[in-house]
Amino acid sequence: MTRRTRRLTQRRLLLSGAALLLPVRARASSEIRLPIPALMDASLGAIILDARRSTHAFVAGRPTESLGYSANYLGPTLRFRSGRQASLSIANRMDRPTSMHLHGLLLPAASDGAPPRPVAPGETWRTTFRIDQPATTAWYHAHPHGDTGRQVYMGLAGMAIVDDAVGANPDLPTRYGIDDLPLILQDRALDPSGRAIYRSDGHAMMMGMRGDTLIVNGVADPVATVPAGLVRLRILNGANARNFDLAFQDQRAFHVVAGDCGLLSTPVVRRTLVVAPGERFEIVVDFSDGRPAILETASDTAAVLAARMANPPRTMGRGSGRILRFEIDLSLPIHTRPLPQRLARLASPVVPADAIRRVISLDMGASMMGLGMIPGTIRHGPGGMHGINGKSYDPERIDYEIPLATTEIWEVWPQMMAHPFHVHGVTFRILSLGGAAPPEHLAGDKDTVLVDRPVELLVRFGQPTTKEAPFMLHCHVLEHEDAGMMAQFSTI
Ligand code: C2O
Ligand code: CU
User: Fold this and answer.
1) What residue owns the CA closest to ligand 1's atom 3?
2) CA-CA distance, 439 to 437, in Å (whole number)?
3) How far is the CA of 287 from the centre of ligand 1 (A)?
């Protein structure tokens, strides 16, 4: 394939609404081009998605069963503009209940989907809301209680981008699919026929569902063609359980410009970046030297570093190596402005003198693999074997009542291994991580944090709940969450 036809293919992928995520063969037969999810702009009209069964090839030429949102696997990138109204509907075309959470959009609980409010097969869930938040990279994914892990694993997830009301920061690359690329990182356990195997046995329940095939936007080991300049990568860890420990093979530095809930105050130079399930980072990489580059991940040592496990299972760290390769196309127009040194105005966190402090323990259930029993923690509730503060998730129970428009300090403790902790409907700042100030790239507004040591969060409760629609707090290892490591709160 010539450079020109490859570029056209890339452009055609951007324009085609339905046929997104078709991996296109690149030059060598073993090379798969990075699929770019179609862009759907909520300001151009209502977004209508089908949650449906399909087939998808994780590895070239081996199509197997999958799920997708109006796509064979994953869903389109939804683009929202702050200050505007948006409307969204999801038709459940599957044979099991589902629900969809807009992870990273700041909405009233009643406008968001959540585990206790499933959408039955054949039904359609509709929501309308007004977005009012800083520009950010968010996402959406299935969230039916007890089946979240399987549905996300099979493909029910996608990226969302919120643009500022005034137009995103003009000095960062913004050409979607060209110098502003969505990268949804996942891992899959594939059988010899290329089928993604989902297990919910005791092992997966403890470690989370992991696999040794690394995929990005649904395919293993693709190639992305980028201009010889600055390129923004919107990185989402959409894996069920594993952390990605990213670095370029040539050890080049890059700038982290945004975290979960928006821009940082200044770009932060890094050579490595740990991204936990549910977390997002935007990084800017300089390809102006024209050299190809390879993005890799180390094995998942982050999950075990702070673990109280004497002998972490070997499978914990599996799946390392190449995620994708970048090739430079000198004919692509480059982003000509230098990276701005000021990004967002972030006030330093102010802790109110009367702030309520809550202690939250992310508890692992009884041993199934000789990992050691935690005495007296879990009461097996209807939710399963894991819990928060000793209680398994119970949709009938409100765990916290929190006055709206207040700020609290949440002190979150991990048990046995690192847990990515996520709270719906809020943003927080990390006050301390293991007793120290957080590293700079974790110092912005967030909604998900890897709790690999005790962490203190300053949480702002700005969105209301209703009696039927509380907000969730949970571990984003989806098998932990499905097995009960989740609680709910309402605002009063
Ligand atoms: Cu992304 Cu309740 O989760
Ligand atoms: Cu967990």
Assistant:
1) 103
2) 7
3) 33
Q: Where are the beta strands (DSSP E) in 380-441?
A: 387-388, 400-402, 406-414, 419-423, 426-433
Closest ligand to the CA of 387: 2
Which ligand is nearest to the Cα of residue 139, counting in written order?
1
Distance CA(161)–CA(293), nearest Å, equals: 26
144 lines ligand 1 (CB under 6 A): no
Q: Ligand 1 within 6 A of 422 CB?
A: yes
The residues, ordered by sequence, that sit 6+ positions from 348 with a Cβ below 8 Å of its Cβ are none
Q: What is d(CA 172, CA 179) in angstroms, rounded to the nearest whole number?
A: 9
Q: How many CB atoms lie within 10 A of CB 406?
A: 16
Backbone φ and ψ for 191, nearest 5 degrees, come out as -85, 175
Residue nearest ligand 1's atom 1 by CA = 103
Q: Would you say the C-alpha torsion 145, 146, 147, 153 has a positive or negative sign?
A: positive
Report the chain's C-alpha Rg in angstroms. 21
Structure-token pair, residue 257: 């410009």
Q: Which residues surround ligand 2, an ion (CB under 5 A)?
A: 419, 475, 477, 480
Q: In what order do the strands lie in the sheet with 244-248?
A: 32-33, 222-226, 321-328, 293-298, 244-248, 272-275
Taking a C-beta distance cutoff of 8 angstroms, is the pair 106, 133 a contact? Answer: yes
Q: How far is the CA of 240 from the centre of ligand 1 (A)?
A: 11
Whether 145 lines ligand 1, by a CB cut-off of 6 Å, is no
Cα–chain center distance at 417: 19
Burial class (CB in 10 A: 0-12, 13-18, 19+), 372: middle
Q: What is the pLDDT along the chain (492 residues), one digit of tens a residue?
A: 334 434 433 433 343 333 444 444 444 556 899 999 999 999 999 999 999 999 999 998 899 999 999 999 999 999 999 999 999 999 999 999 999 999 999 999 999 998 889 999 999 999 999 999 999 999 999 999 999 999 999 999 999 999 987 655 668 999 999 999 999 999 999 999 999 999 988 888 888 999 999 999 999 999 999 999 999 999 999 999 999 999 999 999 999 999 999 999 999 999 999 999 999 999 999 999 999 999 999 988 777 754 455 555 555 556 778 999 999 999 999 998 999 999 998 989 999 999 999 999 999 875 433 343 343 333 444 446 899 999 999 999 999 999 999 999 999 999 888 999 999 999 999 999 999 999 999 999 999 999 999 999 999 999 999 989 999 999 999 999 999 999 999 999
Rounded-to-integer distance, Cα 455 and Cα 287, Å = 36
Tell whether ligand 1 has an atom less than 6 A from the beta carbon of residue 278.
yes
Burial class (CB in 10 A: 0-12, 13-18, 19+), 99: buried
Retrieve residue 23's tokens. 């991996």
